Structure formats: C-alpha cells, structure tokens
User: What shape does this take?
Amino acid sequence: MSDSHPAWKKVSLGDCVCLMKSGLSRKLSSKDIGIPMLRSNNIGNKYCSFNNIKFWYVDDPQGARTSDYILNEGDLLVNFINSIAQIGKACLYKDELGRDCLYTTNILRLKPNSKIESEFLYYITQTSDYSLFVHNITKPAVNQASFTTEDFKKYTFFLPNINEQIAIVGLLSTWDQTIENTERLIVAKGKWFCWFSNTYLFGDNYLPKDTSKKTRWFSIPEHWKIVTIGDIAREIKSVNGSENELPVLSCTKYDGLVDSLSYFDKQVFSMDTSSYKVVSQGQFAYATNHIEEGSIGYQNIYEKGLVSPMYTVFQTKDSVDDIYLYQVLKTNLYTHIFKVSTSASVDRRGSLRWKEFAKLPIPLPPMKEQQKISALLNTAKQEIDLLKEQLEAYRKQKRGLMQKLLTGRIKLSVESGSQRRSDTKTEQGA
Assistant: This one.
C-alpha cells in the first residue's frame, strides 16, 4: 500500500502480533465428544463458521497439551497450508459455542498486540496488497500449498493510531452489515422462489384438488398432461467443424449457460473446438456427465455458440414454452430426479445420455398457462437478480472504500471512534 497518510507508521505483521502459532495435528471425530476443533473449511468470510465442526477427544481437555492452543475472542485465523485458491484466507475467531475451541495444524493463529485492533488487522488481510504478498511467498505443491511463518511476518502495511483504526473499523463494519443483510435477503427470496415455483410449475395453486394425475415424482391438476421430454423435444447433434469461430459456453449449476471466458476469467476449454457441439439460440444444453448437479442451461446469449462434446443439446417442439420448460428443469425436484436417474442409468458411468433423459416425465399445462406461469416466475426471478446485482455493487464499493481508508487517502473523524473505544473499555471493566 503506497501513498499512505504521512502520520501513519509503516509496520510489519510481526510488529503487530504477540503470538503467531500453527495448530494441532490430531485425528478428529464428528461426534460431539471432546473439544471442538476448527479446520480450514471453518475459515469464514469475516468470522469463523461452526458448520460441520469436528471434535478431538482427549483425557484431559484442560491439560498442558492443549492449553496453548485454546482460541480467544479476537484471534485472527489464517489458512497457511491449503489449496492455492484458499491459501491466506483469514477470519476472526468469535466464541459462539460457549466452550473451549482448538484449531488444526494448517491454520495459523495470530493474536494482535496493543498496537492494533483485531478487526483492523482482519481488514488488512482483505486488501489486494495482502493477496499479492501471500501469492509471492506461497510455495506450490502437488496436494497443498503453504508459506512459512517467518515469511508471513515480513508483510508490511501502514498503521494509524488506535482511535483512527476504530473509526475505520466502524465504517467498514457498517458496510459488512449491509452486505450481510442483502445476502440474507437473497437467501430468503431464493427459498420463497423455490416454493413459488413449485406452487405454479406443478399446479399446486389449483386448490382444492378434487382430482389429479400422479407420477412417481409429482401430482398435477387433471386438465394438465404428463409427457416425456422426448415427446416435446429432440436431440441436436450439430458439430462445429474447423470453419466456425464461435464463443464457447459452459453450463453452471445456478446460472445455466454462460460465456466461458467471461465467467471464469480464463480459458478452461480446449484450443481446438472443431469437435465442439453447436448450440443455437433457443436450444437447451446440459452437461451429460454432471446433470445430477442441475447443470442444464437455455441458450439465449448468442445466435450460435459452442459447448463441449461431452454436452447434450436439444430443441423443443411447438407444444411447449421454452422458458416454462427451463424453469421446470431448474427446480430442486428435477435436480433430484436427474441424480436418481443418473444412478439408475444403464450407462452407470455418472452420465445421463439423451436416450434416458428423454424418458423423464414433464408436467405440461395448456400453452396459455405455461406462458402465464413463465411470466410470473420471470418477474419473481428478476427481483432476485436485481438484489444480486446490488450485492455485487456493494462489494465493489466496499473494496474501493477499503483501499482508500486503509491507506489514509480518506481521513475519518476519530471522535466517534474514541467514544466507541471508551464505551468498550467501560463495558469490559463492568
């Protein structure tokens, strides 16, 4: 971080911590017996997560063997032995269990000293400078990458006084709360959308149901039809050849078909696309070997695109509304149906080829109802998409603000920060 405020001091990470220690290496159990122990996958976004917690059973939980590894509120936990993607990821320990908690050997525990607020140190680990530094000191390996504590201690940054730190933490925490609230709203809206989808896509809005048609998977109103995918669609086997330079698409679990280069920000497909399949606008494609994850998409991005030879492409007939069908196939129920059908497939190689896929049942209301349902669900989904765009905008604005705050290019009034620290001390002394 260059161009910092002139009054700020340049310090190293080693100057700001009184403890930097890796954890214990022990065989763990999922049974709630012994001491909970945090692993790499418990390193959360800001605070540690206690999902899928593991336990270490010892005869003397408070003995000397473990006392040096018991976490305290405000400790910073860092992945320092992990995959390249996760190396250096940090979070704060917050005691949510109400009991002693340990940490494994691939986590580095940092205990901030009196020079630095623990949350301020956390925000330092969220900067691009920090990420670049970790990348430079990391030693790649076949299974897991790592860096040494001696190298890690050398990371340098600019440090304001305590009151300025508190003021900065207060502002960034407000942004964190806004982001967290938006994330929760998206999750809640997503759950509501699942219920809303099932209500309309399977005719649950027709109440009471005096009569209905049933399959193994669902029931529908009497005036609807139950058809197979093969009744309303046909497979497309158009191959690119060597003449066309078309954009390559990938199929994702949640977003359907996406432009591969834009989505992954790198090339993950073959340089030679001559064997790739052509998927035109208005056609469907699914990952034949990963359909059980719900990886199916509708091509509405380009006039023509390409997908891997391992994908299956199909096109509907006039009896079905494409968007209605796509919404049916993206439900959690159909992800389950894909998973069960893949396991039962004659192929038994984790794939669902067109011959078996075409046998799957589809609930089919009259065309006008299909179109009405599509419009209703599209409106509901747009609301969620707007919230996701808003969330990304919040994250981007926070990153820009954080860069300016942590270099002193924006100087905050420290009056509120001083008061907050005074109140904190009063609470602690009470």
User: Anything to note?
Assistant: The CA atoms of residues 91 and 122 lie 7 Å apart. Confidence is low (pLDDT under 50) at residues 416-430.
